[in-house]
Amino acid sequence: MIELAEKGIRLSKKEIDTIKTKRLRTVVKYAFWRSPFYRKRFKEAGVDIDSIKSAEDIVKLPLTLKQDLRDAYPLGMCCVSKEDIVRVQMSGGTTGQPVIIPYTRKDVEQWKEMMMRAFCIAGITSNDVIQITPAFGLWNGGFGFHFAADAINAFVIPTGAGNTRNQVRFMRDFGTTVLCATASYPLRIAEVAEEMGVDVRALPLNKMLLGAEPWSEEMRKQIEEAFDAIAYDIPGLTEMGGVGTVGFECPMRHGLHIWEDNYIVEVVDPETGETVDDGEEGEVIYTSLNREAMPLIRYRSGEVSAVVSRERCECGIEHMTIKRIKGRTDDMVIYKGVKFYPSDIEAILASYGVRHYRIEVGNGKIAVKFEGDEGIAEKVDKDIKEFLGFRPKIEALSHGSLERFEGKTKRLVRVD
Ligand SMILES: [Zn+2]
Predict the structure, then answer these.
(1) Residue 53's pLDDT band (boundaries 50, 70, 90)?
(2) What is the radius of gyration, based on Cα positions, of the chain?
(3) Which of 330, 361, 381 is where one domain is finished?
(4) Which of 28, 145, 163, 344 is deepest in the core (most CB within 10 A)?
(5) Whole-prediction pTM value?
């Protein structure tokens, strides 16, 4: 399967376009005939499925919303019979109707293959000791890494989430070389390691695959420096099959390469749904071309990004490049007419060495709280004013004042 993954990475633009067109035509018909939801939705939108001939025709198709998936609970959007399902994962919040993503055997193989593309780019091999810290359970994180790590016969340490002291102990005692985690977790690990008297820079760890939450370039610098290791951004959306499926970071760090033979990505204006120009920020819409149990057509992800390039990248990869995910549309904050994402503030804080922070928004006010010196507060105030154009209340706190998380970290708190 490694050969298959390598071949997928190296596809030429021409090969990608051929596969993409063929798969789009197939998946539209497949969804129409197999899913009562899509048949109804396409009919309502007056879509003639035979008129979908090329990737450009995708705009003729209606969008799929997260609410559609909720309404379809448990398996209302599924295109296969229950006997063909081998597992489910879950997406979405902790409240309300769960969003269930079913997988056939072929879907699990697809997940594995896409994750293996990431491993190939990062140079992860059977000689690596891979510690998997995202949870194993209904959330997809743990399993996504596990399937590929197991398939390449690496030394897998499936710790799952939590128990940070044990994570540090295993990293040291087993000589972990690859850490898979949410983006905010490594700095928590570093903090606990320090308390334990373990120097993380001296550990054999040399690669990290981080995702599940937006993180700025400045935060990356801090993580890489803290561990003396390379940190890769791994995107992934449960609705598209889970962590590692849609693409992987460009080794030259030009953005994320989207596996266009498996997914079509569009960037649209979240208000109008119209495609925005390349380079312009908008909401990412995904179409899964190669999934069997529940392919999704023009799915509104809520993720914010922009097309960087559709041309061959300097790294040799010919799959399109988008910006690293900046945030989700629901994380956007509008304050005094200025729109921004928590990651914009993180970039400023992290450039002064801040690792732990929280943004509180509500009642017409914004407060930025961080652990660090009073002196930093003045600089942060000046930078936010200059780059974002407003002045929040800024509060410097002593080390350890903010709550620590072992998975995703709550950076934005709405206090209405
Ligand atoms: Zn590249």
Answers:
(1) very high
(2) 22
(3) 330
(4) 145
(5) 0.95
